[in-house]
Amino acid sequence: MQINDVISIEREGPLALIVIDNPPVNAAGHAVREGLWKAVEAVETDDGVEAVAIYGKGRAFIAGADIREFGKPRMEPILTDVCNRIEACPKPVVAVLHGSCFGGGLEVAIGCHARVAIPGVKVGFPEVTLGVIPGAGGTQRGPRLMGIGAALSIITTGERIGHEDALSCGLVDRIEEGEPREVALRMAEEAQVGTLPCRKTGEIEVTPDAEAIEATKAKLAAKAAHLFAPHRAVEAVEACTGPLEAGLALEREKFQACIESPQRAGLIHAFFAERAVERIPEAGAEPREVSVVGVIGGGTMGSGIATACLNAGLTVRMNERDEEALGRGRATVEKNLAGAVKRGKLSEAKRDAALGRFKPSVALEDFADCDVVIEAVFEDMGVKRDVFGRLDAICKPGAVLASNTSYLDVNEIAACTSRPEDVIGLHFFSPAHIMRLLEVVVAEKTAPEVVATGFALAKKLRKVGVRAGVCDGFIGNRILSHYKKVADYLVLDGAAPHEVDAAIEDFGFAMGPFAVSDLAGLDIGWANRKRLAPTRPAEERYVTVADRICEAGNFGRKTGRGFYVYGDGQPEPAPEVAEIVAEEREKAGVTAREFSKEAIQARFITAMIAEATRVLEDGIALRPIDIDAVFLFGYGFPRHRGGPMHTADVIGAGELVARIERYAEEDPYYWQVPDLLRKMAAEGTTFAEMN
Ligand code: COA
Ligand code: NAD
To answer: Which CATH entry fits the domain spanning 292-470: 3.40.50.720, 1.20.120.450, 3.40.50.2300, 3.40.190.10?
Structure first.
């Protein structure tokens, strides 16, 4: 019997199966909620039905509430009422979990009278990662099944667990092999004859656990003080020792507060950003087969890229200038894999298999069978030209030839080959086996299948591929180069580098810009500034502090000294930097002034947004949301703020224009209002409308 578009009931004698069919992931949107409500009503009033099981079609039981409905007017019945309705059903109702069972899906499951997991299912409450808390009984029924300690751990972290852990913590009652429909039928029958014990979760007594609550609060205060939702989750769980109804009411209140918080909007934007970037003009092109990847250069990036490819099951060749450098590259890859084994991320057997697929060689001729070659040699056009010329002669037809260049012109690199249509930029981020961003840089002549291959490779490596056009620094580094200047200006005008870092960390970045420069190596920025010096406009303010640190041989962490001094304990601001800054101010005739934390944050973020807007105007990024993805997955932008363009919408185009005009009174060259931003301010539009 079809209840509505997404819910139906199948009958087998006295057994009823409620079927959820809402592709792609059976999200519990309005139709699912309404259909479930009506289906429970139907099986309850049908005297012929003695037991019920609910299962999902496709790849999930229910992947969660429909995230797209968050923040919109609520539509009855709400999920809390649906779960209560299921629990109140006088006939046993079993949930059969397969694929994904998250958030609202898990709440439906724990509203049922028994839960059976099919191996491979993942369950959890990822709500806090979206800025909300379980809002349909998860914080009340969850602890009744698992105990307060386990529930707090799962709910406040969003951790996703497998079937065995779900069984051992009490979230599910049994594990059964089989297809969802067939298991559902068997389990409904067992519920009918009483061999599958059924009970109402809401009636289970919970043992108070003040210790677990205090421990969780302390942990959150230390690690997640700036986040809104996890704290609300603890407050809701605290209420689970009282009557269910009161607990559910409190949970609802806390959930609603989360829905209204700006962090919820930012985190959900980030969730969709990760997926939106896949929508590219070349999506219809057929990607080329990739099983053998060649990596040229075994330095910082080459060894990380090789590790990422090995972890994805690919065969990897690596080339270096000589045996000694190759040995270093090989050792770094081995160390990366050993680190993954040590952290429990990789089994020893998988590590051994990966090493079996790793084929370092100083003979570039060995790259003839590579499907994709990724060049990660020195950032020098001469060296890159030479490498691409040789690759052109050696590689098989159809091989994708990629450069990991950070800034250089991919069109110029492509022109060194007789096959520019096969050349692309694949810009990884350091450490390449960990960072999720991959900028896929599309040059003038790059073929659509080559772009599609870049995106398919990103997916295989479990990275977020973002399409970028060619310009100095592409999306991310072009914007970075711009906002790093404002950090320098703030220092010249009065703030200490560690004050700038502290303000930016307070905004939510894991590290401030000067700490990041120290980590990346000050020599990298120095080399880039020297490269660009001949084209630097005379009107541009130029701050020489970092250059002078480098001239003294201090390149940051790798030399133990940069903006900070690195010893055994916490890094300390390097005293000589304060002296250099004072001298530079004197030379420039600047009288130092004070900048509040808010003033530093405002200038920094405004500079980032201004350049990001120009990147958009120039067509280097497809949409604002692509820029957000770049900063969320490659530059440590705080996820709960959704990215620079989402932040721009929160601030508003009008306010941004006003700020830039105010700052421009001091420095009209650096602070220029992008035309697009001015137009948006005049028309009252947002970046979100351009996604
Ligand atoms: N609500 C609305 N849409 C959802 C959704 C949800 N809860 N979960 C996934 N989707 C959408 C995605 O946006 C994507 O849409 P698109 O194809 O238009 O881009 C589509 O479903 C497929 O999702 P995707 O993540 O690409 O598939 P996957 O197989 O890699 O992963 C999941 C599936 C379920 C593991 C993953 O989507 C996920 O983690 N979803 C969120 C689960 C969650 O947080 N639930 C709690 C909500 S309270
Ligand atoms: P690196 O100096 O650590 O490594 C470069 C390696 O290339 C060295 O081991 C060198 O021996 C080798 N090499 C040089 N010429 C070669 C040749 N002709 N044939 C074979 N090997 C050769 O540099 P890196 O940091 O790994 O950077 C490599 C590339 O990646 C650069 O283009 C850089 O801009 C880019 N990149 C760097 C980062 C980063 O954070 N370090 C991030 C993204 C992109």
So the answer is: 3.40.50.720
